[in-house]
Amino acid sequence: MELELQLAVEQLHARYAHALDAGRLEEWPEFFTEEGRYRIATAENEERGLPLPVLYAEGRAMLRDRVASLRHANIYEPQRYRHLASSFLVQRVDDRVVSSTSSFVVIRVMQDGATMVFASGRYLDRIVVADMKYEERVVVCDSRRFDTLLAIPL
Amino acid sequence: MELELQLAVEQLHARYAHALDAGRLEEWPEFFTEEGRYRIATAENEERGLPLPVLYAEGRAMLRDRVASLRHANIYEPQRYRHLASSFLVQRVDDRVVSSTSSFVVIRVMQDGATMVFASGRYLDRIVVADMKYEERVVVCDSRRFDTLLAIPL
Amino acid sequence: MELELQLAVEQLHARYAHALDAGRLEEWPEFFTEEGRYRIATAENEERGLPLPVLYAEGRAMLRDRVASLRHANIYEPQRYRHLASSFLVQRVDDRVVSSTSSFVVIRVMQDGATMVFASGRYLDRIVVADMKYEERVVVCDSRRFDTLLAIPL
Hints:
The structure is a homotrimer. Chain A is an alpha+beta fold and about 150 residues long. The first copy, chain A, has a single domain (about 5-140), classed as Roll (Nuclear Transport Factor 2, Chain: A), CATH 3.10.450.50. Helices cover about 25% and strands about 40% of the residues of chain A. Chain A is built from 3 helices and 6 strands; from the N terminus they run αβαβαββββ. Chain A has helices at about 1-20, 45-50, 60-70, and strands spanning about 30-40, 55-60, 80-90, 95-110, 115-130, 135-140. In chain A, β3 and β4 (about 95-110) form a beta hairpin. The first copy, chain A, is globular and about 45 Å long. The model of chain A has no long low-confidence stretch (mean pLDDT about 90). Chains in contact: A-B, A-C, B-C.
């Protein structure tokens, strides 16, 4: 039923956002299928058809490596993130997969309380219905400038 | 069924936001009925009952003119916008029309990456159920100050 | 039915946000049960298990007192707030109560138009299903610094 599918997709996105915002990075790879792909790109490069992702990872093993290196590099000041998502458009691709387009904004709160819009953009997802995991999550950021450390996954 | 109506309204809002954020301005008039009204007002004027919209357009022809003039005036630096919407309250008005109240925030990303909250406020909509188009969309902005160019529709 | 419950919870949150953003503070206590609890805490204190809320009120009478003192103290410049909420995870606790976790961001618009992210965080709610009111609403803010006046409820 389509309403239930829409809700299931929105809840996948919600659990993903809460895991990241709570700093539970080790859960992050579990939101993807075993061979799941994760890519961060800029809107500018996407429109120009330039295959230059800011970040690319394929398969849970690579995602776990990414988490490990983030944990290892964690010398930065303790900051917090808050994801907001909106405008979910879910469509059946076939019996196995749905696509989802949504908008996001991530807020960053520094230790001294300074708060800023850290990133905004679109999620373009392919989700396997049977286990509600991302087969592909493409994060298309509106800005072409990035905090090079990109402290957490988006 | 009410759940389906709620979802249909939220999806109308979602398609509208994605069209604007992707810069597909020519699609914007198509979200309205042939005689559809679009109005931007400030919360302050609304509360005082002052009939002084920041912008008013009635009918798709006027909306198309607005798009044409925006395209023509487009000398500004390429900026991007991201709409987030939330808190959708949908109510049946009659067999033909539903009303919808929701909150929005629009983020603006400049070419150098500077990101700011561009606008926030409420959408007050009247939507024709049969073809899921806006008969009226009133954008009540929280701020009374505006970027006079108002580069894109809200 | 779970879809209807999810929608009912989201609409409770939506009505709450619209009431606050419209400055209808007197409605605020009515969103809680007679003995309902409201607490603002920081994420840092929550993680450390420190029982030091920024604000605590129990029962509608205390919530009404809080509104009265806000109304009384209202010498501040007229500012506006805009709540955005996202990522709603609703779970049945028992026949009587559901829990809800969600994310929020509050935007503040000053009289001169200056706009900022005022607060962000999570709502952790216990909601009585029969009358759709908060038995408990815990606001866990990402920042540990607060505008000491905290002009409005979050």
